[in-house]
Amino acid sequence: VIASNLRNNYKNTRSVDFIYTTPDCGSDDWLVADLAPYSSSKHFRLHRYLTREVVDEERGPEYVGRFRSNYGRPDWDRVFEMLVKSSTSGTSIGVFFCGPKKMELDVREACYSAMIRSRRRGLHYGVGAGSSKFETLHHSSKACNVRLSIRTEKF
């Protein structure tokens, strides 16, 4: 459903990073089953955070297809900085959020901070309005001037 919707409605979408938290492995079996067919796509990445489980040191991290489980709460600053740094300069990243108010505030703050850092990189490298084509191409991997916009929903 997600992939066909992306293909039909968002032709400029190049990839999807689906990031979510869940208390434990058993709480999201239905979601993992629905998303598993897309695990082979290089354009779809699932980031699952298990907030109430501890990693089994002997087993190591759990994988479902190419989906890796992370343990503990997400470091939102790190998550969004990673997304921005893996983006090309001038990219727009849309963030859709549904969850508790406290987490929403943390996600908003992290989005805003990552965007500000990206804009500062753009100013530092001279990427943006008035830049020469060579400068823009040379620094295109610097994740400059990446825009993040967030939308929240309550269900």
Can you describe this structure?
- With 155 residues, the chain is α/β, with parallel strands linked by helices.
- Helix content is 36%, strand content 23%.
- Strands 1-2-4-3 form a 4-stranded mixed sheet, with no helix packed on it.
Name a few traits of the molecule.
two-stranded parallel ribbon, globular, 6 strands, 5 helices, about 160 residues, alpha/beta, about 25% strand, 4-stranded mixed β-sheet
Oligomer: single chain
Count the helices. How many?
Answer: 5
State the low-pLDDT regions, or none. 130-137
Helix content: 25-40%
Tally of DSSP β-strands: 6
Our estimate of the beta-strand percent is 15-25%
What is the H/E string?
HEHEEEHEHHE
Alpha-carbon Rg, integer = 17 Å
N-to-C terminal Cα separation, in Å?
19 Å
Strand order of the largest sheet: 1-2-4-3
**Rough shape?**
globular
Helix and strand composition category: alpha/beta
Mean pLDDT: 80
**What composes the largest sheet?**
4 strands, mixed
